[in-house]
């Protein structure tokens, strides 16, 4: 596999990001849908604001992962919400770790955030293991909050406090 580059998202990444969002291994564990239309991904890109930090993992010219940190506002300005997804064909290659490392470093060293949070399907053990490696702890469980594989599934709320 070619070297992985982590960089801020660009408009030309929309098509590749949409492919990730539609991949079965991703839709099973995220809010993405297999029928995700590219217009929805374009809307996501166009709505990004100054407190939204989105990075892609690229090998050659192919987008293989996406990590995002959305900084909250007002009295929650010290917190951020993370989203991470890696194309199913590129799982277990360190891409999620590279993206998460980029986001955590940004939160800690550039943005000065105190708290990071995310949610994850309870049976997504590789992701849970990765998040724990970066100091995230399971803080709660949302019962039947996610529909995938023909059934409702629970989500863990995970948080990391600096």
UniProtKB/TrEMBL annotation:
GO molecular function, one term: acyltransferase activity, transferring groups other than amino-acyl groups
CDD domains xrefs: NAT_SF
The organism's place on the tree of life at top rank: Bacteria
Domain N-acetyltransferase as annotated: residue spans: 4-162
Pfam families, alphabetized: Acetyltransf_1 (PF00583)
Gene3D superfamilies, alphabetized: 3.40.630.30
Entries under InterPro entries matching the protein: Acyl_CoA_acyltransferase, GNAT_dom
Annotated PANTHER family: GNAT-FAMILY ACETYLTRANSFERASE (PTHR43415:SF3), SPERMIDINE N(1)-ACETYLTRANSFERASE (PTHR43415)
Name of the protein in its database record: N-acetyltransferase domain-containing protein
Naturally occurring in which organism (per UniProt): Caldibacillus thermoamylovorans
């Amino acid at each position: 596999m070619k070297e992985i580059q982590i960089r801020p998202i660009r408009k030309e990444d929309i098509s590749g990001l949409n492919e990730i969002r539609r991949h079965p291994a991703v839709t099973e564990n995220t809010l993405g849908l297999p029928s995700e239309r590219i217009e929805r991904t374009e809307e996501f890109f166009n709505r990004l604001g100054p407190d939204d930090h989105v990075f892609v993992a690229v090998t050659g010219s192919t987008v293989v992962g996406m990590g995002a940190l959305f900084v909250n506002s007002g009295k929650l300005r010290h917190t951020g919400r993370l989203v991470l997804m890696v194309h199913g064909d590129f799982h277990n290659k360190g891409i999620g770790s590279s993206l998460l490392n980029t986001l955590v470093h940004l939160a800690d060293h550039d943005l000065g955030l105190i708290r990071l949070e995310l949610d994850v399907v309870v049976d997504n053990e590789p992701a849970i293991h990765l998040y724990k490696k970066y100091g995230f702890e399971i803080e709660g469980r949302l019962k039947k909050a996610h529909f995938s594989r023909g059934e409702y599934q629970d989500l863990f709320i995970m948080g990391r406090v600096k």
